[in-house]
Amino acid sequence: MKLARVRVENFGPYYGPHEIDLSVGSHAPVILVHGENLHGKTSLLNAIRWCLYQRAFDRRNEQMPFKELINYHAVDDGNWVASVRLEFTHDGVLHELERQMQAAREPVADSDFEIVQRLRVGGQFEKERTIDDRIASILHEDISNFFFFDGEMLNRYEDLVADEAGGAAIIKRSIEQILGLPAMQELHADLTDVHRAAGRRQTKALEAAQKDVEFGRQAEQLREQIEAVEKDLAELQHELAIEQAKKEELRQRRRRLGEVEAEARELATLDQDIEQLGLLRKEQQALCRTALSDSWWLTISPLANARLDEAEAQMAELSEQVAAAHVNVAERDRAREALTSGRCPTCQVELTDATRTELERHAAEDDHGEPADLTLALAELSAKVKWLRELAALGPVESVRSAHREYRRLGIEIRRKQRRAEAIRATLGDDPATLGISALEHEYDDVVERLRNINDSIQGQEAVRDDAENKLRGIEAKIRRLPGADPKIATEAAALELLRDIFDRAIDVFRTDLREQVESEATQIFTELITAADLTSLHINDQYGLRIVNRAGREITTRAAGAEQVVALSLIAALNRCAVREGPIVMDTPFGRLDRSHRKNILEYVPHFGPQVVLLVQSGEFERDRDLDYLGSSVAREYEIVRVNDLSTQSEFREVA
Amino acid sequence: MDTAEQQVFVDRSEKAARSAIKRAAGEVLAHADDDLAQGVVDDSLVDEVFRLAWRYQFSEGRVAVRAELQQVVGDRVAEVLLAAEEDAK
Amino acid sequence: MPDDQTTISLSDEGDRIVRELVERGWFSTQVAAFQAAVGVAIAHELTIDRSDLKNQTTKWNVGTLDPRLRDMIMEFGRDAAESPYETATILAEAGLRRLASVLDDEAQLASILRLDAGSDEGVEGEEES
């Protein structure tokens, strides 16, 4: 399977229709999608899962009810409809799968929804009832976890790797399931059933012939005993599965309790920070307040400046006028004096007629105005210029400007922390840590004890069954060799026994092969990813315990920093590679707990994980400037999931150029 | 991925299964004491049974598979017995 | 000016706004807010119709105000010569309403009050809030 396009409508934070192109080429198999927490990365992964299997999971790996998958805005509109459309190729043929959920009114349970599914293969519609089987044959849900996984699953596998007894069983099941063992096991069960039917036919034949009936009866008794034991074993296996699931759940709760405590601590720190920042902000505002109250004319400063320029120009002009007026008065007085004396005041020569006329003109002039009036006007203007200068000089002092900027910056930081605090409150809200750690530990120990007992019972019953089987085999062989035995029935029974033995043995051989195959693949991947040079391989022993082996061939049992996470990733990648089906890998925030050096190795290796890898990352675990280089030219396309508004209820895909 | 690549991929896991079955068959048949049965359970029957299993990787409802198994083995047994009868004549 | 006011009155709305400005911590006193509002109106050429001013309450004696306010009105206000304090009241009411409209937008408030004068940079991270 290779994904081409996903189209979501009203699913999760995606209001209305949104599409993302996930197609890749062989030289660029990676699609990179960035998104902050709660923006919609996990919803994208869930959309794919839901379209394929009609199931979506929350961060605690619990199945989400359908109504929680519908976008809030759509619900506000009264629209209880959501759909996902997945286009992918399989065996070179385009498949278009669409799943839609619809409720006429506010739904309470999943059953209130009508589900419509459509599948087109190579342009032809498939019958609706065959769709789920078709999908199962392309990529069965049981193995889908090794294709679509998130950091939580890596954490779970990390625990499995560390925990020997419990982990081994799950690792064993994973390996067998993904590599095709179930097919063989189912066949073995079928052969057993058919062989038993043949044996019964033999018994009936004996009864009909009324000969050697005793053998037949013994055989029948043994068969009944075996069937009874098998029924017991089935019940014990069922109990075993329940207890193992309980153990897994307790382990998760123990881990979650740790996480919850961490989040509660973070919340307390955030609340403290918010209070502190609030006080600082008030201080900054106080600085601004003083400035605004004392210098209330701040806003007028620019006007004052303009006015000042005008006034200063006027003042310059007026000064000139005053000077000119003074000169004029002096000249006028001199002219009058000359006219009175009849002689030039400088050289005392008698005035001529022309000179007299000129002097009379001067004596009459008063164009420039009276100096006294002008001087008064100048004085008034000068005063105005003085206070305008005072005004214009006042702009907000740098310290007030920076106080206001700081005030705004603090406001933004406070809002950021408030949002984070809200997010934490939302997750803590429905996860009450009702059990303390020690109570959990007790429960865990009880479960481990019960598991031990069940395993003992299983072993006991298996021994009884094997014993009976051997006895039955002996009798059946005798029956076959009886003179007068129906050759067809006898031969069929014998042939089926042989076939059953062959496939019984084949299962053991296959198991070992699978284990070796996975071990070899996982080791190859592990050595590419691990930074510690002395850790050279992974070993999966008979009990399916997973160990790191160092250069000296010694198994490492102590935790090496970061190594467990790398082992978990190597195992999952190896299982994916060896799987009976091929599919896209969609990894949701897988890097959260990895250190930088391992992250680099993994990113460099990502393009080799498979023919299509979709990486969903958040900024905390992926620094675009640095980490993009590690992916090289393998990225076909890059997207960002962005919020349309400030709420977590509306997102969209944006391609990064 | 084109069809040729896809084919290689699927064959790899099938190949592993077949290899395991071949080895198992070798071991088991070496110790079998029923000649007729040995005659019935040859490579081709084992192969046919395996193909049946591999086709039904994950399906529920084994009733159809069992019926087919019974048919396949029954037919084969009939063939072998008939051949044996012919030889005896 | 025999016809000018000797007291300053504010409308309901104007009164509410000066109180809020002090409550929100932007001004130490209501008078300071009043005076700044005059400045805002002059700087942004705002005015308001007398008929929009409802329910006047007497707030202060004109002596309470900064004497430079009168000079300011005379210099910058339009038609202020006859009654500068009446003009001041009208300007203040207009300025107060403008301040009220941007009270929740810190960037705009800063701009109107010229607290960010001379600086073109925004505040880090402001776009996301």
Task: Describe what this molecule looks like in 3D.
- The complex is a heterotrimer of chains A (657), B (89) and C (129).
- Chain A is α/β, with parallel strands linked by helices and 657 residues long.
- Chain A is 61% helix and 14% strand.
- In chain A, the strands form 3 sheets. Chain A has a 6-stranded antiparallel β-sheet. Chain A has a 6-stranded mixed β-sheet with strand order 8-12-13-3-14-15.
- In chain A, strand 14 and strand 15 form a beta hairpin.
- The longest helix of chain A has 82 residues, at 213-294.
- The mean pLDDT of chain A is 85.
- Chain B is flat, with a radius of gyration of 16 Å.
- Chain B starts with a helix and ends with a helix.
- In chain B, helix 1 (3-30) crosses helix 3 and helix 3 runs antiparallel to helix 4 (63-88).
- Chain C is mainly α and 129 residues long.
- The longest helix of chain C has 18 residues, at 84-101.
- Chain C has 5 helices and 2 strands.
- Chain C has helices at 12-23, 30-43, 67-76, 84-101, 106-112, and strands at residues 7-10, 57-61.
- The interface between A and B is large, with 50 and 49 residues.
Name a few traits of the molecule.
heterotrimer, A: 657 residues, alpha/beta, six-stranded antiparallel beta sheet, B: 89 residues, mainly alpha, 4 helices, disordered N terminus
